[in-house]
Amino acid sequence: QSALTQPASVSGSPGQSITISCTGTSTDIGSYNFVSWYQHHPGKAPKLMIFEVNKQSAGVSNRFSASKSDNTASLTISGLQAEDEADYYCCSFAGYGTLIFGGGTKLTVL
Amino acid sequence: EVQLLESGGGLVQPGGSLRLSCAASGFTFSSYAMNWVRQAPGKGLEWVSSISGSGDNIYYTDSVKGRFTISRDNSKNTLYLQMNSLSAEDTAVYYCAKGAYNWNPWIDYWGQGTLLTVSS
């Protein structure tokens, strides 16, 4: 399977909002409400931010929200902060025990 | 607190083999699916393989089928990845990652990763 499609990079100024899209197919995102999002600071362990399309993981700021429509999922970060600068990955359950990740989006806080 | 500690990475020649290990703690290991996810230099995350809590259900991404073998020892709370016929394309940081449930709908915890370099 091909990776889910994400923009390579997005940027925003502190306090602004950004949205990262994640496009899959009818066999992954379109078939299951098991889209998750991960924040990854290079050199560190990735961190679960969102699961089941729009549920925040414990301890995650409510500035992070997400949604899904058909084969596309989206992550929105509002009130951007410098600490949000990281790589973000979407992931979808793809049947049985398999997962598929997006190519990743580098968020730059200007 | 969930902890996942990978080990076993290193430098291997093309065609060689290596086994990665992941020591897990802080949860009932046998009740959850486990995964290996890798990140090649400058690339994104790639799911490699998963195994159910009992070890009965195993899945691989196409590029490693027939070369990699995932396994687990629930008595030792340890996950393994045996990698054979390695090539430069397998060079990556390999992460051990815990599935949210036994059937692995998403990953909820990750290890820090171990680096595998395949080079002559």
Helix and strand composition category of chain A = mainly beta
Contiguous uncertain segments of 5+ residues of chain A:
none
How many runs of DSSP E, i.e. beta strands of chain B? 11
Shape of chain B: globular
Find the count of extended strands of chain A (DSSP E, 2+ residues). 10
Overall pLDDT metric of chain B: 97
Radius of gyration from the alpha-carbon trace of chain B, in angstroms? 13 Å
Overall shape of chain A: it is globular
Beta-strand residue fraction of chain A: over 45%
Key descriptive features of the protein:
heterodimer, A: 110 residues, mainly beta, three-stranded antiparallel beta sheet, 0% helix, globular, B: 120 residues, seven-stranded mixed beta sheet, four-stranded antiparallel beta sheet
Write up this protein.
The complex is a heterodimer of chains A (110) and B (120). Chain A is mostly beta strands and 110 residues long. Chain A contains no helices and ten strands. Chain A has strands spanning 9-12, 18-23, 35-40, 47-51, 55-56, 64-69, 72-77, 86-93, 99-101, 105-109. In chain A, strands 1, 3, 4, 5, 8, 9 and 10 form a seven-stranded mixed sheet that branches. In chain A, strands 2-7-6 form a three-stranded antiparallel sheet, with no helix packed on it. Chain A is globular, with a radius of gyration of 13 Å. Helices cover 0% and strands 51% of the residues of chain B. Chain B is built from no helices and eleven strands. In chain B, the strands form two sheets. In chain B, strands 2, 4, 5, 6, 9, 10 and 11 form a seven-stranded mixed sheet that branches. In chain B, strand 4 (34-39) and strand 5 form a beta hairpin.
